[in-house]
Amino acid sequence: MSCVFCAIAAGQMPANVVYQDEQFLVLLDIFPLRPAHVLIITREHAPFLTDLSAAPRDALLALAARVAKALYGSGLGVAGINLMINDGPVANQHVPHLHLHLLPRRPGDLPALIWRILTRFLPFGRKAIEARLQREADVLRNALQREP
User: Fold this and answer.
1) How does 101-115 read in b/e, with b if 16+ C-beta sit within 10 Å?
2) Would you tell me how many other CB atoms lie within 10 Å of the CB of residue 144?
3) Alpha helices in 2-125 (DSSP H)
4) Is 99 annotated as catalytic?
């Protein structure tokens, strides 16, 4: 399978999945810009927002609100959230499969965010990031179970 998100949705690649249903998977970004950086990916392969069927397109924001509420209530210190869809390669979409980023923010984190944007694909610190992702996944799974 050539699409990494389709492979994750099919169970052919590992991911830190914190929620899934018939239309979506919610997982932690493996190259997070900030701690608890979440992606909502569609099970349906759609490179652009305009390619996505109506039902998942219409349900995407409702799920984002539920995930945001879980992030705020998770105890991970989330004080704000940027929601982003990079729609197409020119918009910095790295995986050609529609996905919504929920980027948790904390007071004063802009310098760390800028540094991470510049270094996120470099290999240093991967083991620490992977361990943190596992801890965050456990916390978010529990927080999402509390959200209806």
Assistant:
1) bbbbbbeebeeeeee
2) 18
3) 4-9, 54-72, 110-119
4) yes
24-28 β-sheet, strand order: 17-20, 24-28, 38-42, 99-105, 80-84
Long-range contacts of 84-93 (CB under 8 A, 24+ apart): 85/49, 87/48, 87/49, 88/47, 88/48
Give the active site residue among 37, 97, 99, 101: 99
Distance CA 91, CA 139 (A): 31
User: What tens digit of pLDDT does each residue of 57-109 get?
Assistant: 999 999 999 999 999 999 999 999 999 999 999 999 999 999 999 999 999 99
Q: Name beta bridge partners: 42.
A: 24
